[in-house]
Write a sequence for this structure.
């Protein structure tokens, strides 16, 4: 299979992987996706394979390398070089935290969030393609906190690409904000805006769809692309780490496992589904949600209903999402283009769609889902801490789900939670969980002091030598470059002004 298909079209459109990542908006209103994935029959190669070798093997099975034309190999090689900036030699280490419970740590990339797993190689790939095409690109992204730093880091100093991040002012953690505003590379720009993440996301979408904006950019020599998980390129890189889990499990003689994914836009879990299609022996994919419980409602009732939902802000902001873009690709994989089109159009116009009983039953053979309150989230961090493992608030939701399932699980079956961020990015929530501090006192402490108190706490309780990563602490001493906060209405002119 060398071509991608579109989720709302019955006629295969034969878009190559290159075209889909350079211009992720499918012309029939849907998304590009993989179709007819062929499973590996043999996994003997996996035992000795390291992270980048797994990636080459998976991309070749998906037809991606051929689809990148004759120079495919060199593009992939330059993408894979980005893993050299990761702090852990295994890239994504699997840690055992209890009997039959493991954690795949996806936060050892340069910005301490799982977004690095895909955005680092993805940005290098895009840069390499842009150079080959001798085309300049403007990459836009909206962020609730983790996508922004990873995108900026990935594209910093890339010659043919300018990257812009739009974030809601006041809507990210202090560490996340500094990871963006202190960037010095001349091809990067960060716009804080007045509004929440939805405001930022809609501003991004309307610019991406605005013809006159594209034309003005094009007169300046720029093509427009986006780096959110609507881009199939990001999903592709995320499939790889599910094979890492399999490799480690096979080494221990474990043949089947369940994976629990802290979910928001459903990109991570969808990559797990594709890995399962490729033969990774995942029994269940479990979707952990925060108080924004639309996905858990969907997988438990078959109804995706936006009508009575309002977004609530939680301790796990990267999961504060109601319109989960990648559900569309799951619908396509199970029910085909016609049904997907019908359901997604119904979501747009009626703000609801409902699966049939049979369709729901099909999904439930693979998926389970649950949502957890903010109070539970803090308890999860605290409970894991007592078991000598530090969780960030996103991962805590997955941990709680695993703990709930433990009793009903056959003794041979292992559970793996995916850890999506380093806890120190979320100092306030972690502090509150460990010290039970009331929020009034926390407001008075700035994040640096909060982090230092957490460091003390961990030293005394877990590890006498524990030190926070110096890259995080040093952010507080850096000069902030991108300090202005903008009105959404002014973004277009500001962006054009930046694209010289
Ligand atoms: C983005 C993100 C998630 C959600 O991942 P999706 O692929 O959008 O479901 C969870 N946790 C963290 C820390 C994230 O940055």
């Amino acid at each position: 299979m060398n071509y991608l298909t579109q989720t709302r079209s019955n006629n295969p459109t034969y878009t190559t992987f290159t075209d889909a990542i350079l211009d992720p908006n499918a012309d029939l209103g849907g998304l590009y996706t993989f179709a007819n994935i062929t499973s590996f029959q043999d996994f003997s190669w996996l035992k000795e394979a390291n992270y980048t070798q797994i990636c080459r093997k998976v991309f070749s099975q998906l037809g991606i390398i051929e689809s990148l034309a004759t120079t495919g190999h060199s593009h992939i090689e330059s993408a894979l070089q980005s893993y050299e900036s990761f702090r852990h030699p295994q890239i994504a280490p699997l840690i055992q935290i209890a009997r039959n419970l493991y954690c795949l740590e996806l936060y050892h990339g340069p910005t301490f969030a799982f977004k690095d797993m895909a955005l680092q190689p993805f940005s290098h790939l895009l840069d390499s393609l842009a150079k080959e095409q001798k085309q300049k690109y403007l990459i836009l992204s909206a962020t609730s906190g983790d996508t922004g730093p990873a995108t900026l880091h990935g594209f910093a100093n890339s010659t043919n690409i300018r990257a812009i991040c739009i974030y809601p002012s006041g809507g990210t953690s202090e560490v996340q904000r500094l990871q963006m505003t202190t960037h010095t590379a001349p091809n990067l720009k960060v716009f804080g805006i007045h509004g929440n993440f939805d405001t930022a996301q809609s501003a991004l979408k309307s610019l991406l769809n605005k013809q006159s904006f594209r034309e003005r950019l094009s007169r300046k020599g720029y093509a427009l692309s986006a780096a959110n998980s609507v881009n199939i390129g990001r999903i592709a890189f995320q499939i790889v780490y599910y094979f890492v889990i399999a490799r480690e499990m096979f080494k221990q003689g474990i043949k089947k496992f369940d994976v629990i994914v802290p979910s928001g836009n459903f990109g991570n879990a969808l990559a797990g589904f594709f890995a399962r299609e490729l033969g990774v022996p995942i029994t269940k994919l479990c979707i952990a949600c925060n108080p924004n419980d639309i996905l858990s409602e969907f997988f438990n009732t078959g109804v995706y209903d936006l009508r009575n939902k309002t977004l609530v802000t939680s301790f796990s902001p990267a999961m504060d999402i109601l319109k989960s873009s990648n559900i569309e690709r799951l619908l396509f994989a199970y029910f085909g283009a016609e049904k997907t089109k019908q359901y997604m159009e119904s979501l747009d116009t009626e703000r609801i769609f409902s699966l049939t009983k049979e369709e729901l039953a099909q999904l439930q053979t693979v998926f389970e889902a649950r949502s957890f309150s903010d109070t539970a989230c803090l308890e999860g961090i605290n409970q894991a801490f007592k078991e000598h493992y530090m969780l960030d608030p996103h991962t805590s939701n997955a941990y709680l789900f695993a703990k709930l399932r433990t009793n009903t699980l056959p003794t041979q079956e292992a559970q793996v939670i995916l850890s999506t961020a380093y806890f120190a990015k979320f100092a306030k929530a972690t502090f509150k969980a460990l010290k039970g501090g009331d929020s009034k006192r926390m407001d008075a402490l700035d994040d640096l002091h909060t982090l230092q108190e957490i460091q003390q706490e961990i030293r005394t309780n877990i590890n006498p030598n524990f030190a926070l990563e110096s890259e995080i602490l040093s952010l507080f001493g850096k000069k902030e470059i991108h300090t202005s906060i903008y009105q959404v209405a002014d973004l277009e002119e500001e962006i054009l002004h930046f694209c010289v």
Observations:
- The two ends are 39 Å apart (CA to CA).
- The chain has 21 helices and 15 strands.
- The pocket of pyridoxal-5'-phosphate is lined by residues 113-115, 146, 229, 262-268, 318-319, 394, 420-421 (CB under 6 Å).
